[in-house]
Amino acid sequence: MAKWIVEKGKGLYFLLFCVLMLVLPLILRMSEAGDYYLSLMVFAGINSMVVIGLNLLMGYAGQISLGHAAFFGLGAYSSGIVTTRFGLSPLWGFTLSIILNFLIAYLLAKPILKLKGHYLAMATLGLGMIFFVLFNELPITGASEGISVGKLYIFGYNMNSRYLKDINYYYLTWIFTLLLTYFALNIVNSRVGRALRAIHSKELAAHSIGVDISRFKTKVFILSTIYAGLAGSIFAHYSTFLCPVDFGLNYSIRVVTMGVVGGMSSIWGGLLGASVLSILPQFLDIFAEYDILIYGLVLILSVIFMPEGISQKISLCWEKCQKKWFHEV
Amino acid sequence: MTFTNQLIQYLINGITKGGIYGLVALGFTIIYKSTDVINFAQGEFVMFGAVMLYTFHHVLHLNLLLSFILAVLVVTLIGILMEVLMIRPLEESSVITQIIVTIGASIFFRGSAMLIWGRNDVFVPFFSSGKPYRIFHAIIDRQYLWILVITLLAMGVLHLFYEKTITGKAMTACAANKKAASLVGINIRTMVVLSFGLSAALGGVAGGVLAPFGMKYDTGVNYGLKGFCAAIVGGLGNNVGAMVGGFVLGIVEELGAGLISSSYRNAIAYSILVLVLIIRPQGILFTKSGERV
Q1: For the domain that residue A224 is a member of, what is the CATH number?
Q2: B89 at A interface, C-beta within 8 A
Q3: Alpha-helix runs per DSSP H in B139-290
């Protein structure tokens, strides 16, 4: 029995998690503030998508990005511009979000990913800032006044209906999040995942055993921007109005923080970090006043005391428990 | 105002700003050379310099010069504490981890400043009162002259420190080769602490001279990031480069903002950063190759 759990573990955990997410709203809606909890979960899901993509890039391939808010913003503005400025179906927004992120990431990847360590951090930060200025200044994005986003229809069903908006988006967001999580988990446990980890631990060694470094870096970079773009599109339709403020350096750093706190080299860690840091602040009153102070402190302490994130602590505990409970494993 | 006058005005503004960027860039460079860490909290040292000056001058009513010196000393202390408490425990960690801890420090500093000094700008009086000077038809604010003089003074003192004092030479040796430096009896630990103190002090000076224009908890970020661009433009890890990078960035930014569009000011600065990183990661001054592969 124990052996079976451990062997089939990963798939089983994922399935259990899916079931949990499926029934969670039923529990949440029993509470009076149900819709509020659901909306928190929507943001947790959106941030999770960005963080999982970022973890693939930072935790697995070891390439830092301090500019992911730009790609999140590109996705969001694609949806906003397509639905409001051109009056097209939201589906085109999602498509444009993917295409735009793909193209821009593809063009940027070659020159940018050549840089390492600090240089890469600075280049991505600079890019993020440039996009932030563009979101703030270009007439098509509505500049600093922002832009409204059209309603999202899926097969003619209005997702933004008045009473069911939160639950609709809960399911939409988490279906996307779970699909992307599943995809990421599969990548990590595949040839590509091993190649990425090889690049992370020693580029030269990876190169010498035949890993095409620049190709893998490009691929994972593009993938992570598409994750961010999709999250951005959903964010756009859910919040119905876009302001450049949401797509600045602060967001880039927030998602990095989420990744670090949860555990950069783990997909589950990304999910955990994003969810904890999206939800917890809303329940701590002191957060409202001192949010940046606490954010900074959390970041520093978690890097010093658990550099591998919460997820690693949990899995260490779990291993201990397993040893205690089932001696044969 | 004719075009030439306009140009002169932009140049003057650019040089003043460039001086500040240069100071911040020097701060980055000093820490980078001794520890290989990029300190994202450099801009917060600038902010602390200004708000400390405000505290000593306005709240404790000390005279301006004394307040300035005390402010710089306090910021130096903050820099040293940062090294001891946050950087030292992570000495052996990866670049990503080190970057993240300094980002954490920067956010934390901002948060504490917000708590102590509030969300509004704090001001100190201009260092000397009177009408601004005029060169042709361009206007030079008196504070601009102060900024320029104090900036150049700080750069000069730093240069003398590195070239003429034994401690300065020890720091240079330490930056060049830690192992060799420790073999000839240089205490690496002390040098690292010293470099954090020194770089914080430079930030504090920059903050002090900027204080009359107002400073609040999050103003430092912009100076930090620009100083960071300047350090890259000049070539990371080189003192002269940092200063030159600062002036170049300041002038180009002002010219760009003035001649093209002021709303794209930041885009211009960061485009320069990205372009330099892609084309000449070793900086505009030097031919030595940067870390790429």
Answers
A1: 1.10.3470
A2: yes
A3: 142-164, 166-176, 178-183, 188-210, 220-234, 239-259, 265-279
